[in-house]
Prior knowledge:
Layout: E1 5-7, E2 10-12, E3 18-23, E4 33-39, E5 46-52, E6 58-60, E7 68-73, E8 78-83, E9 92-99, E10 113-114, E11 118-122
Parallel strand pairs: 2-11
Antiparallel strand pairs: 1-3, 3-8, 4-5, 4-9, 5-6, 7-8, 9-10, 9-11
Amino acid sequence: QEQLVESGGGLVQPGGSLRLSCDGSKLTQSYGARGWFRQAPGKERQAVSAMTITDLNTYYADSVKARFTIAKNNAKNTMYLQMHTVKPEDTAVYYCAAGSDIDRVRETAAYDYWGQGTQVTVSS
Length: 124
């Protein structure tokens, strides 16, 4: 069974930085779409950032542009989300995902496999 494992979440002060990792080393095949989503209490899961592997095009939600960066280490099949200048509204459970629908990378329906999530809390 395909498996994604997130790590790197935690408590960070406003204005600080955090790097999330998504270990995809146990994936048995390549997926064209890799994404990061987040879900705050009482809210829907929303796309934060995504990457199409074939052409390395990236997507960022308006709320995180210029603050977050998505990257992938192909040798380790690990995806990262570097978060800078974090804000309290970034507080959520962050999930990584892998899927084949490269035309809908902003949508949860495009992804077939999800990690278990990692909590990010931005608070002083």
